[in-house]
User: Which sequence fits this backbone?
């Protein structure tokens, strides 16, 4: 073990020299602001495109919940507009994503973003509870108790996974994250137990993301309406998942890692992002279809009323059937 290695041979920030002073030696021809801000070596246009798309996806995800908050406050029917299973599965998926990201040693920025996702889900779930209680005071309180327990568990998970400032973040070969740390050739490439657990939880997160959309699609179909559901919620999620998936695909593999191996190691996150785009498009299609159907019904009703007025006027006119 060299003098730069951390305890038990773990490579720390100090060991790889993750500082602006050593930027030129560890990341030649790379972007300095990306190195200093994200701790990532972006050497060419492909890496930079991956960085920009990743940042754009974060902005889309952070802003996706805001339109739904506004729509819920405006309509007051969030408990009937959104499926409870959609919210619960979405929260479970984001929680698994947070835990998997933490175990797979993703960058602090990604972990902070994952924490935001869970907090946003908990806020939306809290609003659902509020309107559920407000609109149906006589209904059984069992579901309220269950959801309250889920909120407490989700908040506890955030506290457990949120990296504290006094904890030294270990730098290991990040095999699964959408943004990888600097590759160090001396490190072993074998999977650790922690990485395997993170990969498994990431796979579970993808399944939960895919399953979460199905209850909402069924709810919209059963209601024959999407009133109370914000179109921009799913539009921004579609944009966020698309840009996130593209950022992963555009990222250059590590030195010595082939394209196939890179895709395999990021497959759960790719399925969780790009796989849900089709289902989110289905929800958006339902919204557009329901709006068009409502407009056609209104137009048909106006035509019928106008026809009735015309017929009545003709019958009441001199020489008409009723006037004679």
Assistant:
């Amino acid at each position: 073990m060299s003098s730069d290695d951390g305890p038990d041979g773990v490579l720390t920030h100090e060991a790889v020299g993750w500082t602006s002073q050593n930027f030129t030696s560890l990341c030649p021809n790379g972007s300095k602001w990306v190195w200093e801000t994200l701790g990532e070596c972006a050497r060419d246009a492909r890496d930079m495109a991956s960085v920009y798309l990743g940042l754009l996806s974060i902005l889309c995800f952070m802003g996706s919940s805001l339109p739904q908050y506004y729509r819920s406050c405006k309509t007051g029917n969030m408990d009937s507009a959104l499926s409870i299973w959609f919210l619960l599965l979405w929260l479970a998926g984001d929680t698994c994503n947070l835990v998997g990201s933490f175990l797979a040693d993703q960058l602090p920025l990604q972990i902070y973003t994952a924490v935001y996702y869970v907090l946003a889900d908990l806020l939306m779930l809290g609003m659902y509870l509020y309107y559920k209680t407000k609109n149906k005071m006589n209904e059984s309180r069992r579901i309220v108790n269950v959801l309250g327990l889920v909120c407490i568990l989700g908040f506890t998970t955030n506290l457990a996974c949120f990296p504290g400032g006094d904890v030294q973040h270990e730098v290991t070969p990040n095999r699964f994250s959408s943004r990888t740390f600097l590759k160090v050739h001396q490190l072993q490439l074998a999977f650790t137990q922690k990485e395997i657990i993170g990969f498994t939880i990431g796979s579970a997160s993808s399944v939960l993301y895919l399953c979460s959309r199905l209850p909402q699609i069924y709810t919209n179909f059963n209601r024959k309406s999407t009133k109370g559901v914000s179109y921009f919620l799913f539009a921004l999620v579609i944009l966020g998942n698309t840009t996130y998936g593209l950022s992963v695909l555009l990222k250059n593999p590590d030195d010595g890692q082939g394209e196939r191996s890179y895709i395999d190691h990021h497959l759960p996150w790719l399925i969780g992002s790009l796989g849900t785009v089709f289902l989110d498009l289905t929800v958006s299609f339902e919204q557009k279809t329901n709006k068009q159907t409502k407009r056609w019904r209104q137009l048909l009703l106006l035509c019928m009323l106008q026809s009735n007025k015309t017929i009545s006027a003709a019958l009441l006119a001199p020489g008409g059937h009723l006037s004679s």
Notes: Residues 45-292 form one domain. The two ends are 111 Å apart (CA to CA).
